[in-house]
């Protein structure tokens, strides 16, 4: 059996130079910068997805049905967005991170150590959505400075989703 190859993702590596070079009007250096920011976005998004799915499975209490359904809506949307983020990294000529180790290193979101009560779940998810929004905003600034409109568009859409999710979750705490 072949031994699995461990990827060193200490920096975003460009894809092999075999074949046609990428010529989309954004320099390799700028594409690498944006891909690195999108990799952080992917890591934060995956961590939030996993946390939200975990809470969907494990929520209890009087708000069970409301939270169970809300968490499912949010993690399903997040799951679908992961592919768009990873594909944008690939379109920029770089490999997308795809391991728990890479996500742990790149993410700004800490995973919970245990299953919290429902109110704490909501608080954690508010903070998680806000963290993803901050990561998206930082990546958007980099993409905008290099005139990368597809990435700006993607990140604008992600900002809208995460700011709305944070608002909806925060409303449950009032």
TrEMBL record:
<dbReference type="InterPro" id="IPR008331">
    <property type="entry name" value="Ferritin_DPS_dom"/>
</dbReference>
<dbReference type="InterPro" id="IPR012347">
    <property type="entry name" value="Ferritin-like"/>
</dbReference>
<dbReference type="GO" id="GO:0016722">
    <property type="term" value="F:oxidoreductase activity, acting on metal ions"/>
</dbReference>
<dbReference type="InterPro" id="IPR009078">
    <property type="entry name" value="Ferritin-like_SF"/>
</dbReference>
<feature type="domain" description="Ferritin/DPS">
    <location>
        <begin position="36"/>
        <end position="174"/>
    </location>
</feature>
<dbReference type="InterPro" id="IPR023188">
    <property type="entry name" value="DPS_DNA-bd_CS"/>
</dbReference>
<dbReference type="Pfam" id="PF00210">
    <property type="entry name" value="Ferritin"/>
</dbReference>
<comment type="similarity">
    <text>Belongs to the Dps family.</text>
</comment>
<dbReference type="GO" id="GO:0008199">
    <property type="term" value="F:ferric iron binding"/>
</dbReference>
<dbReference type="InterPro" id="IPR002177">
    <property type="entry name" value="DPS_DNA-bd"/>
</dbReference>
<protein>
    <submittedName>
        <fullName>DNA starvation/stationary phase protection protein</fullName>
    </submittedName>
</protein>
């Amino acid at each position: 059996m072949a031994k699995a190859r461990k990827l060193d993702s200490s920096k975003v590596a460009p894809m092999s130079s075999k074949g046609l070079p990428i010529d989309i009007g954004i320099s390799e250096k700028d594409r690498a910068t944006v891909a690195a920011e999108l990799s952080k976005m992917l890591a934060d998004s995956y961590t939030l997805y996993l946390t939200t799915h975990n809470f969907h499975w494990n929520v209890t209490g009087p708000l069970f049905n409301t939270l169970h359904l809300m968490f499912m809506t949010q993690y399903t949307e997040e799951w679908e967005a992961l592919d768009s983020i990873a594909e944008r990294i690939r379109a920029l000529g770089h490999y997308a991170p795809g391991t728990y180790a890479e996500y742990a290193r790149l993410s700004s979101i800490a995973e919970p150590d245990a299953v919290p009560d429902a109110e704490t779940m909501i608080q954690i998810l508010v903070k998680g959505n806000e963290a993803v929004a901050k990561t998206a905003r930082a990546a958007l600034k980099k993409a905008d400075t290099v005139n990368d409109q597809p990435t700006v568009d993607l990140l604008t859409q992600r900002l809208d989703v995460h700011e709305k999710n944070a608002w909806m979750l925060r409303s449950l705490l009032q």
